[in-house]
Design goal:
The structure is a single chain. The chain is mainly alpha-helical and 166 residues long. The chain has one domain. It is globular, with a radius of gyration of 20 Å.
């Protein structure tokens, strides 16, 4: 058993845990993400203070970003609705970009297989926007999407297992 197989098993198990305990896992993930934002904000504040004499404009921008990060981190601590909203916004942005690239590829690519990949990109963009909409409706959908994604990735890693080294 190699590293990819072990990673696949871990991802598969985490996916099942997230689907079985959706609200508990989402509370945990929002807490962890909140802590990450707070730690990043504090580190960014310290770094901006150290660089103030050399680049005050950059340091000021970093201070503002750090304060926003700390505030967002405190708001995220255990707040599954804000976590779901952030995931939904990210899905919308990614989905809209995928749709733009898909439409542009349909019109500007002349080779048919490339045009077909652009159509697939457009369809995946629409699906991603719909997933973002569902994540706004209920935090359960975020857990479901994340759990299914982890299970699929886990299966992919497990199946890649030994073949990745040959």
């Amino acid at each position: 058993m190699n590293d990819l197989s072990i990673t696949g098993i871990i991802l598969f198990i985490f996916g099942i845990i997230i689907i079985i305990f959706p609200y508990l896992s989402q509370t945990f993930l929002s807490f962890v993400l909140g802590l990450i934002f707070i730690v990043y904000g504090v580190i960014s504040l310290i770094r901006s203070y150290d660089n103030w004499n050399y680049t005050p404009g950059h340091s000021l921008t970093r201070i503002i970003g750090a304060i926003i990060g700390i505030i967002l981190g405190v708001c995220l601590l255990g707040n599954i609705y804000l976590f779901s909203a952030l995931v939904g916004i990210i899905f919308w942005i990614v989905g809209i970009l995928m749709m733009i690239f898909g439409v542009a590829g349909i019109y500007y690519r002349e080779y048919d297989p490339l045009r077909a990949s652009s159509i697939i990109m457009l369809i995946l963009g629409v699906i991603t926007v719909l997933l973002g909409y569902f994540s706004f409706l209920d935090p359960f959908y975020v857990s479901l999407i994340l759990g299914i994604s982890l299970i699929i990735d886990g299966i992919g890693f497990i199946s890649a297992g030994e073949s990745a080294y040959y």
